[in-house]
Fold these 2 entries.
Entry 1:
Amino acid sequence: MSNGRFGIHGGQYIPETLMNAVIELEAAYEHFKNDPDFDRELTYLFNEYAGRPSRLYYAEKMTQDLGGAKIYLKREDLNHTGAHKINNVLGQALLAKKMGKTRLIAETGAGQHGVATATAAALMGMRCVVFMGEEDTKRQALNVYRMRLLGAEVVPVTTGTATLKDAVSEAMREWTRRIDDTHYCLGSVMGPHPFPTIVRDFQAVISREIKQQLQEKEGRLPDAVIACVGGGSNAIGSFYHFIPEPSVRLIGCEAAGRGVDTFETAATIATGRLGIFHGMKSYFCQDEYGQIAPVYSISAGLDYPGIGPEHAWLHDTGRAEYVPITDDEAVDAFEYLARTEGIIPAIESAHAVAYAQKLAPTMGKDRIVVITISGRGDKDCAAIARYRGEDIHE
Amino acid sequence: MSNIANAFARGKAFIPFITCGDPDLETTAACVRACVANGASLIELGIPFSDPTAEGPVIQAANLRALTGGITTDRIFGLVRDLRRDVTVPMVFMTYANVVFSYGAERFISACRDIGVDGLILPDLPFEEKGEFLPLCQQYGVDLISLVAPTSAGRIAMIAREAEGFLYIVSSLGVTGTRSEITTDLASIVKVVRANTAIPCAIGFGISTPEQAVKMADLSDGAIVGSAIIKLLAQYGKDAPERVGAYVRTMTEALRP
């Protein structure tokens, strides 16, 4: 079998036109990941530009309110551009620049990855084109403006369901049109090898920091790490350094939309089955003939019919658990964290908060739960207000 | 020897592509018969996929029309069974890996043999991943057709050496769709192909005019045309077969020595 497998998942199911591009990318990555200069430059960008390390905050009021395990929040929302996406983007943009590429293309769902890519492109003097489902450009109008402000071109994608999966397809098509000067800055731990590995490695800084910060604060490992999962980049970043620590439960929260027993869901592990799509073998929401299902979630960032191949493998082996969280539960959690801790999480991250609200009370006070707040919720305020029947304009 | 070789036995091959079920299976059947009656050498039948990442807007739209019309893999197998009552030219399926995988690879590929489909083109199954389906294709005598692209530098010989049926040469960068000009150095690609395999090769992507078809077929063993035909289906729907036949005639006449 080929490269880049996580158990049976992963691989490189892409058009021949792109094969040399991913081979070249892998070779460059293998070289630069061991290059001390690259590491120094990236660390500098992480610390001085993105504001790392991000805080590990003891959520005392939430802990008291839930009455169980001690809750820490990994504050990726405090990063520059407001989400964990910047970790991966700075890594890939730097890599692309070293490879001599002058143009970045990206897909985006909620707009966070698009904003991060536009930001890195502005910083490094590269051109940038972001593909975004037309539906999402409406849900996340503010982020469209931010990308344009940063000098990127935003292309609304009208094909298919006009959401994240269609944005990925269109970015892949654009990459086959123009490879020489262009790097496809994929935003999650998905797609063909080597993307799931590259993105994971750049996001692994999250769990590296959690481990160290919790050691300093508590002198021990957490009992559970909870993160939301669409493609799964913040989750794999949060899990990675804990995978070899069997005492740490790893819990990924999928977007159940209106419920896993409805068609309006994006919970891949709960409702999908094994398939081959967007360059990888993994689990996908699909019909009996393999047609990819139109998925739904209130969260544009989790509104994707697949899951990264390493998550599929962690699910197969039982090392990580994946739980569905509905729109209603996520919106409640969005409001709960705002009122309880004065922190407005991204609606994506609110899925993780929602599961922590269920889990923490069942655990003893001597237990520790870490929730990754993958992004900030400012972008979601208008949509949540509408969800609650209040029509406000951004 | 593969039945596909017959498509290349009488001069340059003309290979039309049709998306099954666009707008319905009756029209697809009529189009295939019109292609055959007008000299097509091999028929490429597209099984629609919800997210065809190698296709341009024209074929994407055809996929959508077909799926909206309720087309399924099983109904397409029925279509081919019906066509095989009178159509003898080789036929191959063009679809995406998930359509085969999800159906059950063995169930799909054995069905291909049973209904008379000679080959399988999967644009998202590169050389590195062909182990996914190749053993089953060989077991059931269905040719797994390989593609080479303008960006295949250093890979052409490797791909050609193991190619089956015919080798599909992608004319230019990007997705399917008509192009006014094809600038790739295809002669150099064909040279490497010829040095590494005896099977025929045909060029596709971007071809719409008889002049382009002649130019491409001169460089290789045949020309593949998709989007130009699908445009006729988009425009004329159920009335397309006659126009598709007339179009195919202009192409096959241009290719005749």
Note: Chain A has a mean pLDDT of 96.
Entry 2:
Amino acid sequence: MAQYKMHLLVCAGTGCRASQSEEIIVNLNAELKKQGLQYDAQVVATGCFGFCEKGPIVKILPDNTFYTQVKPEDCAEIISEHILKGRRVNRLLYEDPETRKHIEDSKHMGFYQKQLRIALRNCGFIDPENIDEYIARDGYAALGKILAEMTQSQAIDEIKKSGLRGRGGGGFPTGIKWEIASKNKADQKYVVCNADEGDPGAFMDRSILEGDPHSIIEAMAICGYCIGASKGLVYIRAEYPLAIKRLQVAIAQARDYGLLGGDIMGSGFSFDIELKYGAGAFVCGEETALIHSMEGHRGEPTVKPPFPAEKGYLGKPTNVNNVETFANVPVIFLKGASWFASIGTEKSKGTKVFALAGKINNVGLIEVPMGITLREVIFEIGGGIKDGKKFKAVQTGGPSGGCLTEKHLDTPIDFDNLIAAGSMMGSGGMIVMDEDDCMVSVAKFYLEFTVEESCGKCAPCRVGNKRLHEILEKICAGKGTEDDLSYLENLSKVIKDTSLCGLGQTSPNPVLSTLEHFYDEYLAHVKERICTAGRCKALKLYTIIADKCTGCTACIRACPVAAITGEKRQPHVIDVDKCIRCGACYDKCKFTAIHVQ
Amino acid sequence: MNKIKSLDDLRKMKQSLEHGMNIREKSNSPESLVQIRVAMATCGIAAGARTVMNTLIEKIEIEKIPAVVTQGGCMGYCYAEPTIEVKVPGKDPVVFGNVDSKVAIEIVEKYIKNGELLDGIIPTNYQTINE
């Protein structure tokens, strides 16, 4: 094998590919060849680095130079300056937003300093389409070790000891789930990987599948051995074409190497994986709905029990785990359960991947140890709020979660603390909001999503959420009353208590948590008819600036409800109570004398 | 394609493959490694820095020394090219001038492995902004 002096890692995840990273790879290779350096440096297409805000990313090793927002035309300069002469291209380096200094070594970037990458260990480090690179990093060694040296129950014990909990949202202990599935006797059992990532704004599962598909294949095989299943199914949404392609390539490679198929590594254990495509319905993240969808039925949940571990896919015992959960499994066996259990908090072990989005400087994918505070995530890793605005809230857990406010900034993040604070871990979406965001509108946005995604099987979810959404629309339109607020709360509780599955049981959470933490804002909407954030169009407050008003009466004539009064050539006045916020006066005024709040 | 038929097969395969990933693995923890920086500006390259760099990479590979070789820009010692800077963890960096392949091997064997100083050291009289 050629001995390269340098490796140029280029992100080939969906985000960076959308900004021409494929072209960058072509150009870098062409330029290397042109300068006769093709044997000195190797260009590697990797998975996501997480720093999507500044993509496309090109990282140069061994000196850890991190180039951001690289364009295809920058490639010649990178090769001739950095690779040939050893001079960094300063203008492409990441600039620290505070000190305005270029950061040469990615290890010194605030974004990476507090991160601990376990599930994302290979993302942005290996070529996901090259099984050799995965094997070189101890890939399939965990599977080999278990098949050769451990019994099923020993392996399950190891997972139990590690304290790993499901990363898909619920946080159910993975080891216990495996144990239940292993104890149920059947001629055929199934391992299912839930890659139906439905939370708006969350993309960790996609990134793992795109950046490190072999880790999921290995973990599914390990799970298969533990529970006694010879078949694995990945339920993946068809909207993830790149993840599907990488997974298909990886499965084919693993079969070629004999790491999937019959008699794996001479152990007598057989396992193979098949892909099942979903149409991208939020409810199919729920395991019973997911199983029905895989069977070709409607993606509708059914009552548990029976749990899938008892009667799942085709009526056989089935173990369903989320992508990120699986990604942690091989490492636990390589480094030991006690190592894993030493990270995190008392009841939440290991790390969690979050997709940072919203009004934050460093939008991207991060992995942090459980127990880190929101403050560290938002202000240190995330680089603070965009444009120097004030932090207002952060929504975690997607449409099933809730909002956390300033007073939660120092709460250590783990499964239980988030639930106690009225939100949840969910799959790890984290949407940051600033002073310009209206919390009623935020709740309305999530309800809009759940109304759309509700499968319609049970009435509380189908009808209840629709009603919640209507009330929120009414409030945003300035027609709400104080009674509506208590109605919202009561209805929310009923939906939570009576819905069939996780979707309905959690869908009112955005309403409840915003009601709890931002009651004043709701009250301002219904009592004073003011949207303090200035978001709700219908609640805009129109006033006339007396100094600018010439008294032309144009607005008086435009107002459909006669809310404006005043004499000719005298400043006019808008009657706030009569005003219907149609904005006709604003459009008519030639002297910019109408002020909108 | 040869199938992997046992855990031993997998381990052997890993050993033959990890070589190609060395550079990447090392970049994960550069502080704990011997860092060798070869000045690779035009004058350095003209004086043979590229050959020296190749020699160093091969040598540390053979000797299995936990070291990483990177290239830097001009260090300013144009009279003494090729120059290399060696930073052993916990020690101040040392700059060697007039390094050809023979000297490079000597540096690895004497200075890096045994901590012996040798001729050709340029007294460092600069500070970097990182310090």
Note: The radius of gyration of chain A is 27 Å.
